[in-house]
């Protein structure tokens, strides 16, 4: 703290650099801030500037409250109160604090209220008030003795200002400025004392009425123009006969020279404008004062009149100083000179200013007036809070006892006067309950309460590892430290993720070194673990597993049971461990689970008496095994008595970091650990906790770090949550090194301290220390470099039947099971086993190879037989051979034909019965191939059978068998009683006019709708299998005895595979009346083209079998379709059905519905209504050729005549003429059209050379009509 305040030599104060970075206050400690001058201005009389500069340039600093970077910076504000306040409030764009933070001397006139501004704080007066005035030295008062009473030396002697209107008086002050020493000041020597040329002549102001030479005027000496320019208005407004000479910083020395020059003359006097007290006017008793009445009764302006009245000398600070630098703010408020102290300072300065330097005068005053500055440092005691989170309930840690230990630490720290002077450490206690939600709730309460947050140094706790992660993770965003006293989980060592987390207990990952040494001691090489899934505390086991296996210790199992479970039994987990012969089991589980586990272990005979060794946590409650109590009081259902539990757990081991240092070791209170334990026991009584020592030392870690920070950087304590302050505190904590209650506290570059690890064994209802592990440590590395394990064999007890160390479950090597083979080859058992495996493997390879050769041989014979058979059929191209139909082969003798059903493209179709290979007799339709058919017909016949064998759907004709091994070829299909749909409809047209017929239901709307839906289902099935039918019409759909319609006639059906369409590339007979435009002109067939045909089928159904495009030839139909025309739906249909038919005939295939959507549409809409019949379809008897059984028509034209043409053709816009949708007439024959071979990558292209179409009478068109 700077404790030099010279009323004669005003100065500006700057605090190193109070530079906010976020919420950070940079205190100006070395290396932590920029050295840029931030000033706190104050006005002053200019005649004292030079001397003030010397004083402030040599002042000493005496550091008391910790602000070591205080700077006194020279700056003038020319007594402009607005400017002084503005410099304490203005913040530059790239800064977060004003350039001036504190001004120790701001002149406040009587009418000005600093509280009118929102950004400054008035910190009280610094000394008695001061003012400006006109002063006449006593040595030069001879000419004016008649105008004041010179005998009243104790009173302030004054002369009234009105005398300066009287030429008789002012003549005494008319000093010749052209004589030395005034002459040199007639021209300005600096900007500070310069006067504008429109006001002054050089440095001299002369009123207009004094320039004529007729009026005699006196001379007033002043310092700098900018500080005293108000006097010009004063002289003008009051018509004073005075000139003003601005001499700058030399006013004090000039007054001395003039006094020496004129002291013996009675006709010359001198008047000066100055500040009192100053080095010009140190005491008013040495001068005669020019008195001015209260400005309210004079014709003075605000800027003039109040300059001569008493001003308060006030300390002003930036408003945020109170919050971010509380100790400094308190010191500034206390900083004040009382009247007697002020007089002593002036007297000392008067006596020594010509003998000693300003530095020596300042030091003399400080040395001899220590009572003055001691009281400045006395400020109200500030609180620093630690947010304590303790497991008061809901855990086995003993939170009450931990809290008592922490309170003991806070009391000891507050009673230690050398620690944190002027601060009181206070612990805020909350209950975390070892639950993450409670811990975060408590933390949020700490940070949202401004009464605590601003002075909250950090958090003490929480206790449980699972609750630390959320708190430690979020605390870095609030720059709050957290020191835990019992969270051993290893996942918090990541300093980037948890930069502000520490703990005074060691990490449980250090246990791996103890386990490793312990297992080596007892020769255990197999170990298992049982933990709760997702628990942070047990993560060290997974990390330990790799290290153990590198040292020859295998993890036979690491079982994890789910955290969220209702009544998950532990039996299956323990049985699994027993099956794997696990004998050494680490079970890091909480109290409740520990009771369940050990009860099941008792029932499964997996206790210490049976040779099992259990490792359980040390932090379990002392009576955690008391199942009688927990079943009765806590409604648990552990199926073991307390007596049985004691048998189950006897002999279990635990590990823990040593709770306390040796009892004779001296701790931080300069008493022994044993004495402290007595004090702790007296306070905590029955609530003593093993973790009390860790909590006690954690509070001391905070206190020692804060004390060091206060001594090196006191400003940092004013803003504990700045990133800068928290980082400094973290660095100090990392360097912590002291001997506490729990042993040596040193973090060695990590978040955790290191300590001795104790190995405990439980028996006789108590834990016993059976060994200690002392780690080997590097001084500045948070790693253990091995260590020494010291066991106490006399204390260790084994409860096995023989009292010896249990085994780890390793089985003894079995005897040789192939001893004869070993003797035969004269080798060891292991080598014999290898030989046996080689022989078995070789034999297996030979057998498998023989089987493969046999299968291939049979397959080759079968293929050869098939080739020979196909050769007999005249088929020589193997690529045209369809897939194997042997699985459907039916012996010819099993088929009986009893009637003829009709004639197809390949031959006659007969009805009959067949006895199928699986023993079932059924009605079948037998499709035959003419005996002397060409090879192309035979291939198509077999291809159709191969296609049909893949179909299995209620609405698709099913192939039930084939006869291919002997000629002629036959295919057996399911028999449909009522024939094709067209014949069915034509034969029942009369029922539409006889509604009362018993068979009227056969053509009812419901029946027609069912037929349409059956066909749509069959087509949907084909589309799913990527097949295009290409010849869908009512004549190719059959009706079985259940009135179910099935799609048949697959001679033109082709599979698209992974392609989007099928392209037809040859001349052939096509059903043009049912074909879509893209199929007709581009040879492209898709599921959408089948839907065009389906729309024609609907047309056939509603017209009861009428021929589409009736009255037109096939070529005329082609031309109509080329023109973009479609069939017109019959009149009388419901709008929904008409829309469905029209949607099927959309020119763009993508706009047509799918078969599955049609099924859904028909299922959800009204039934199909047949249209009104006007004519019967048919042909004249004279046009039938009974001599040709395959072509009943004498002329194709006969069937095309409009016998039932009762509908008009609807015209649509024509298709665009392009190579992709055009056909051209052959120049050789106008009746021939060619399918254009326009290949696209998305279509499957095939040359259907074996296709044979139906006759033109059924609407097909051939290349040669």
TrEMBL record:
InterPro entries, per this entry?
ANF_lig-bd_rcpt (IPR001828), Kinase-like_dom_sf (IPR011009), Peripla_BP_I (IPR028082), Prot_kinase_dom (IPR000719), Protein_kinase_ATP_BS (IPR017441), RTK (IPR050122), Ser-Thr/Tyr_kinase_cat_dom (IPR001245), Tyr_kinase_AS (IPR008266)
The alphabetized UniProt keywords are:
ATP-binding, Cell membrane, G-protein coupled receptor, Glycoprotein, Membrane, Nucleotide-binding, Receptor, Signal, Transducer, Transmembrane, Transmembrane helix
Q: Which residues bind ATP?
A: 927
Give the subcellular location. Answer: Cell membrane; Membrane
The record's Pfam families line, in alphabetical order, gives:
ANF_receptor, PK_Tyr_Ser-Thr
Which residues does the UniProt record annotate as the domain Protein kinase? 895-1162
GO terms (molecular function) for this protein are: ATP binding; G protein-coupled receptor activity; transmembrane receptor protein tyrosine kinase activity
Q: What is this protein called?
A: Gamma-aminobutyric acid type B receptor subunit 2
Superkingdom is Eukaryota
Where would you say this protein principally sits, based on its record? membrane
SMART domains associated with the record? TyrKc
Which species expresses this protein natively?
Rhynchophorus ferrugineus
Task: Give the way it sits in the membrane.
Answer: Multi-pass membrane protein; Single-pass membrane protein
Matching SUPFAM superfamilies, A to Z? Periplasmic binding protein-like I, Protein kinase-like (PK-like)
């Amino acid at each position: 703290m700077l404790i030099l305040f010279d009323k004669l030599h005003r100065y500006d104060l700057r605090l190193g650099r109070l530079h906010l970075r976020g919420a950070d206050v940079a205190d100006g400690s070395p290396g932590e801030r920029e050295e840029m001058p931030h000033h706190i201005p104050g006005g002053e009389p200019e005649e004292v500037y030079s001397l003030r500069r010397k004083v402030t340039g040599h002042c000493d600093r005496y550091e008391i409250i910790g602000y070591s970077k205080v700077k006194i910076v020279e700056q003038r504000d020319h007594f402009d109160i607005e400017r002084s306040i503005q410099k304490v409030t203005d913040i530059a764009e790239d800064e977060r604090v004003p350039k001036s933070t504190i001004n120790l001397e701001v002149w406040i006139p009587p009418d000005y209220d600093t509280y009118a501004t929102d950004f400054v704080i008035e910190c009280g007066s610094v000394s008695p008030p001061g003012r400006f005035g006109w002063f006449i030295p006593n040595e030069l008062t001879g000419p004016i003795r008649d105008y004041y009473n010179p005998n009243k030396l104790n009173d302030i002697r004054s002369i009234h200002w009105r005398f300066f209107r009287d030429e008789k008086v002012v003549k005494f002050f008319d000093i010749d400025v052209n004589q030395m020493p005034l002459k040199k000041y007639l021209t300005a020597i600096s900007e500070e004392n310069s006067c504008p040329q429109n006001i002054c002549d050089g440095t001299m102001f002369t009123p207009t009425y004094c320039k004529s030479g007729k009026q005699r005027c006196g001379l007033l000496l002043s310092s700098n123009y900018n500080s005293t320019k108000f006097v010009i208005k004063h002289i003008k407004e009051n018509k004073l006969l005075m000139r003003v000479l601005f001499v700058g910083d030399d006013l004090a020395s000039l007054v001395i020279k003039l006094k020496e020059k004129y002291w013996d003359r009675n006709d010359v006097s001198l008047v000066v404008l100055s500040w009192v007290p100053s080095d010009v006017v140190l005491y008013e008793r040495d001068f005669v004062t020019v008195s001015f009445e209260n400005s309210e009764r004079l014709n003075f302006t605000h800027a003039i009149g109040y300059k001569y009245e008493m001003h308060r000398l006030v300390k002003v600070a930036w408003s945020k100083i109170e919050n971010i630098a509380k100790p400094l703010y308190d010191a500034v408020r206390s900083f004040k000179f009382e009247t007697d102290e002020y007089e002593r300072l002036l007297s000392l300065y008067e006596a020594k200013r010509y003998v000693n330097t300003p530095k020596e005068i300042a030091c003399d005053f400080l040395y001899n007036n220590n009572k003055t500055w001691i009281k400045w440092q006395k400020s109200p005691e500030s609180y620093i809070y630690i947010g304590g989170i303790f497991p008061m309930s809901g855990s086995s840690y003993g939170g009450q006892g931990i809290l008592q230990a922490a309170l003991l630490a806070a009391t000891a720290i507050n009673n230690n006067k050398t620690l944190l002077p002027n601060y009181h450490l206070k612990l805020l206690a909350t209950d975390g309950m070892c639950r993450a939600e409670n811990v975060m709730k408590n933390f949020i309460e700490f940070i949202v309460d401004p009464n605590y947050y601003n002075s909250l140094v950090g958090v003490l706790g929480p206790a449980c590892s699972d609750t630390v992660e959320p708190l430690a993770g979020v605390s870095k965003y609030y720059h709050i430290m957290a020191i835990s006293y019992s969270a051993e989980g290893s996942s918090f060592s990541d300093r980037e993720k948890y930069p502000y987390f520490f703990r005074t207990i060691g990490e449980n990952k250090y246990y791996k070194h103890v386990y490793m040494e312990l297992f080596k001691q007892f020769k255990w090489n197999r170990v298992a673990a049982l933990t709760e899934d997702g628990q942070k505390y047990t993560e060290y086991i997974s990390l330990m597993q790799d290290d153990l296996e590198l040292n020859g210790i295998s993890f036979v199992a690491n079982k994890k049971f789910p955290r969220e479970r209702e009544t998950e039994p532990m039996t299956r987990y323990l049985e699994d461990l027993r099956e794997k012969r696990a004998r050494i089991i680490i079970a890091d589980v909480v109290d409740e689970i520990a009771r369940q586990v050990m009860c099941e272990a008792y029932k499964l005979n997996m206790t210490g008496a049976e040779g099992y060794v259990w490792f359980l946590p040390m932090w379990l409650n002392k009576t955690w095994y008391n199942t009688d109590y927990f079943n009765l009081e806590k409604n648990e259902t552990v199926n073991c008595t307390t007596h049985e539990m004691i048998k189950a757990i006897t002999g279990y081991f635990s590990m823990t970091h040593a709770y306390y240092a040796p009892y004779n070791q001296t701790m931080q209170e300069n008493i022994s650990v044993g004495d402290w334990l007595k004090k702790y026991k007296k306070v905590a009584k029955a609530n003593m906790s093993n973790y009390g020592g860790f909590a006690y030392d954690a509070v001391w870690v905070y206190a020692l770090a804060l004390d060091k920070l206060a001594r090196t950087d006191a400003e940092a304590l004013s803003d504990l949550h700045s990133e800068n302050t928290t980082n400094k505190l973290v660095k100090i904590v990392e360097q912590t090194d002291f001997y506490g209650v729990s042993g040596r506290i040193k973090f060695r570059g990590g978040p955790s301290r290191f300590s001795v690890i104790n190995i405990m064994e439980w028996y006789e209802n108590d834990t016993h220390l059976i060994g200690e592990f002392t780690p080997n440590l590097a001084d500045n590395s948070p790693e253990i470099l091995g260590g020494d394990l010291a066991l106490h064999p006399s204390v260790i007890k084994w409860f096995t039947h023989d009292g010896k160390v249990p085994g780890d479950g390793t089985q003894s090597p079995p005897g040789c099971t192939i001893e004869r083979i070993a003797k035969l080859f004269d080798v060891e058992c292991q080598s014999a086993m290898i030989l046996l495996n080689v022989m078995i493997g070789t034999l297996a390879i030979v057998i498998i190879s023989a089987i493969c050769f046999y299968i291939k041989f049979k397959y080759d014979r079968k293929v050869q037989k098939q080739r020979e058979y196909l050769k007999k059929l005249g088929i020589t191209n193997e690529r045209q051979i369809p897939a194997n139909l042997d699985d459907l082969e039916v012996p010819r003798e099993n088929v009986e034909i009893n009637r003829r059903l009709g004639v197809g493209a390949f031959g006659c179709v007969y009805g009959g019965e067949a006895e199928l290979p699986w023993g079932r007799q059924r009605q079948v339709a037998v499709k035959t191939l003419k005996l002397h058919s060409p090879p192309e017909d035979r291939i198509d016949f077999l291809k159709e059978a191969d296609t049909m064998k893949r179909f299995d759907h209620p609405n698709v004709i099913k192939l039930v068998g084939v006869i291919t091994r002997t000629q002629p070829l036959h295919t057996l299909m399911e028999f449909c009683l009522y024939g094709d749909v067209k014949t069915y409809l034509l034969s029942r047209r009369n029922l539409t006019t006889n509604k009362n017929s018993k068979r009227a239901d056969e053509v009812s709307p419901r029946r027609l709708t069912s037929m349409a839906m059956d066909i749509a289902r069959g087509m949907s099935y084909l589309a799913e299998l990527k097949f295009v039918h290409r010849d869908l019409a009512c004549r190719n759909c059959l009706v079985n005895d259940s009135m179910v319609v099935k799609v048949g006639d697959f001679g033109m059906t082709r599979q698209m595979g992974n392609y989007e369409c099928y392209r037809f590339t040859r001349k052939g007979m096509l059903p043009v009346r049912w074909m879509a435009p893209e199929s007709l002109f581009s040879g492209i067939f898709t599921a959408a083209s089948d839907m065009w045909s389906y729309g024609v089928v609907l047309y056939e159904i509603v017209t009861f079998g009428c021929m589409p495009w009736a009255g037109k030839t096939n070529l005329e139909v082609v031309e109509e379709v080329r023109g973009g025309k479609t069939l017109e739906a019959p009149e009388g249909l419901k709008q929904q059905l008409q829309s469905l038919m029209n949607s099927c005939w959309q020119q763009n295939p993508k706009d047509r519905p799918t078969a599955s959507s049609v099924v859904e549409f028909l299922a959800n809409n009204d039934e199909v209504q047949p249209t009104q019949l006007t004519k019967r379809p048919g042909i004249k008897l004279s046009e039938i050729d009974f001599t040709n059984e395959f072509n009943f028509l004498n002329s194709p034209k006969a069937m095309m005549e409009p016998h039932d043409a009762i509908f008009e053709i609807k015209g649509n816009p024509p298709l665009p003429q392009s190579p992709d949708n055009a056909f051209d007439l052959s120049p050789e024959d106008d009746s021939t059209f060619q399918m254009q071979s326009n290949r696209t990558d998305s279509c499957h292209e095939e040359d259907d050379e074996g296709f044979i179409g139906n006759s033109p009478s059924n609407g097909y068109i051939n290349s040669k009509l």
